[in-house]
């Protein structure tokens, strides 16, 4: 364990894409590889990550003993065996950070020693390029300093907001799944370019850069999206004709329904573990 005034030792339990992205971001943010650990069930994957990042792979009991912060980054369906392994060895003072979609802090608090502080996080895949949007929520034993530790850790890979845990299923639907909606839209727009006779490679450049530029305008101007859209929409012009078709086809309503469906599935994932 580290001293109180030092940065904590962090162990990532489950070094899949999100787990690897977090480790990479922490290294780029100035953390020492000596202060990071990970667990991974596949030996080839373990060797590859150690070679790439210089971070030690270990087992769950050793990670629980050596780390101040345990970041749980396994798939929700793999959480039960991990908690079975973790429960006998984790110290009640160790901060547990869950990146598992849909799983409530109460699951960890019920299965781990009494008083373990738990912080629930909903990140998203832009963590892979240092542009994650992560929402964090404290469990009943997590104190302000625990939230500050998690914010400091996740700031290495993107932006962080605090939300009540009751909003986490909605956050999962909005930003957790959100990148997929944008990818879906970009895919459809590229197909439209091809339909209109533009080569795929050119259509990809046109649409991807338009997406990057539009996102940058939202960030840098701070304007409401309606204002920015109206600035492109001339009277009786091409854009308003396209907007009319989007409205005629119920695109706005479809997005609302899609995000509600994602929220409902997140709730189901959590409910599946309530009985355990």
From TrEMBL:
EC annotation from Swiss-Prot or TrEMBL: 1.5.1.2
Cellular component aspect of the GO annotation: cytoplasm
Subcellular location: Cytoplasm
Start and end residues of each Pyrroline-5-carboxylate reductase dimerisation domain: 165-269
GO biological process: L-proline biosynthetic process
Family membership: Belongs to the pyrroline-5-carboxylate reductase family.
Gene Ontology molecular functions: pyrroline-5-carboxylate reductase activity
Superkingdom of this protein's organism: Bacteria
Coiled-coil ranges (or none): none
Binding locations of NADP(+): 73-76
Listed name of the protein: Pyrroline-5-carboxylate reductase
The protein's role, per its UniProt record: Catalyzes the reduction of 1-pyrroline-5-carboxylate (PCA) to L-proline.
Pathway: Amino-acid biosynthesis; L-proline biosynthesis; L-proline from L-glutamate 5-semialdehyde: step 1/1
């Amino acid at each position: 364990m580290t001293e109180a005034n030092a940065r904590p030792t962090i162990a990532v339990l489950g070094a899949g894409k999100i787990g690897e992205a977090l480790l990479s971001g922490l290294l780029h943010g100035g953390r020492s590889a000596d202060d990071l650990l990970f667990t991974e069930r596949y030996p080839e994957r373990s060797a590859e990550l150690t070679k790439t990042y210089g971070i030690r792979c270990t087992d769950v009991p050793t990670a629980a003993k050596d780390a101040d912060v345990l970041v749980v980054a396994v798939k929700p369906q793999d959480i039960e065996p991990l908690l079975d392994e973790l429960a006998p060895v984790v110290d009640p003072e160790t901060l547990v950070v869950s990146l598992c979609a849909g799983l409530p802090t109460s699951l960890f608090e019920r299965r781990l020693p009494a008083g373990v502080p738990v912080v629930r996080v909903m990140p998203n895949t832009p963590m892979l390029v240092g542009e994650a949007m992560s929402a964090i929520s404290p469990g009943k034993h997590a104190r302000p300093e625990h939230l500050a530790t998690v914010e400091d850790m996740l700031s290495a890979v993107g932006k962080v907001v605090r939300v009540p845990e009751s909003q986490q299923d909605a956050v999962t639907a909005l930003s957790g799944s959100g990148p997929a909606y944008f990818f879906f839209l970009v895919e459809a727009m590229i197909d439209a370019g091809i339909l209109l006779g533009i080569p795929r490679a050119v259509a990809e450049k046109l649409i991807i850069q338009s997406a990057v530029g539009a996102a940058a305008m939202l960030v840098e101007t701070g304007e409401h999206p309606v204002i920015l859209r109206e600035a492109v929409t001339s009277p009786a012009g091409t854009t308003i004709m396209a907007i009319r078709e989007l409205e005629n086809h119920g695109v706005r309503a479809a997005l609302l329904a899609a995000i509600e469906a994602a929220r409902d599935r997140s709730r189901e994932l959590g409910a599946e573990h309530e009985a355990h």
